[in-house]
């Protein structure tokens, strides 16, 4: 099983796009364990896999009993003042549900619920409560503030505004597929936008995300898990973006050195100093992670060559000493001034990075400013532009500091 796991992990590294593995549970003879191990490893390093479905009919997400959440959480279940409507996602700590508040207004919310089995562990319990407390302190146009949290029947939850959105990770994956000629769903207009509109819109959205990170830092919290999967794009408002998931965050004023060097995070997006668990400027480490995310959002590729032949156990050390590819080596159409912004955010030496997320946002705004049109390509109409005219115009013409 160990040899098969290593072989499949190397295949994940080699395949640039979302690889499809055979049905591991049936073909390997190791049952669901092999699928779980390889899938978990891929998720931890910032990769995603999809497993070929078995011949039996696939149930809907709401019907699937997940490993991370109690099976009694089903559609229509009442949890305190909320009624569960549909499961939005599954994570290591539990599930996120779309829910409605009972009462006349029927407010729709996103409800994050801790897996009851994890509530037995004091460290996980305290981590979830701290996340809810931090989320309640965060207020900004690109942050989903926690407005209520509590415990009902052994379930800990936190409630946030519900957004009909899609993660930046999914937008990047779908755009790669679209540019390859594949048929893709279009939950967000940037997925099928003309190249110039994509570049302008994504640059502006990432500036908003950087400003949201600055709000987090202003509250003396570091995020520690900036990556495309934790950035949500609003499907109904092309310029709205939200920085999510403070589950790995730390309070700068109270966190110990050991807590800051615990190695938590997603290695593909972690700064070299965090990967090596060395002393770090935590603010600039978050800026580095935002830089890697910016690289991927604009180029649709990763800054590091696929680490073929590197065991997962040695991946952190490999990434800590690897040198990123220039963005223009991945996408030659990236303007040189924008490439310089990305590389400064990702500088190996923390002192060479932007001092704050606000500085990064301001630099992106300056590049995007109408007065600096000579620094970017003209945003000309594209004959095959599938983004509707209103959305394209909003992405091109809206002020850089407006959502």
* Rg over C-alpha atoms, rounded to the nearest angstrom: 21 Å
| Major sheet description | 6 strands, antiparallel
- Which CATH architecture of the largest domain would you pick? Orthogonal Bundle
Low-confidence stretches: 14-41, 47-69, 374-396, 399-403
Percent of residues in β-strands: 5-15%
Q: CATH class of the largest domain, anyone?
A: Mainly Alpha
CATH topology of the largest domain: Transferase(Phosphotransferase), domain 1
Strand neighbour order, sheet with most strands: 3-4-5-6-8-7
Number of strands: 13
Query: Helical element count?
Result: 14
Computed structural class: alpha+beta
- Terminal residue distance: 50 Å
Number of domains: 2
Measured as a percent range, the helix fraction is 25-40%
> What's the overall geometry?
globular
Q: What's the order of the H and E elements?
A: HEHHEEEEEHEEEHHEEEEHHHHHHHH
Summed over residues and divided by their number, the pLDDT gives a mean of 78
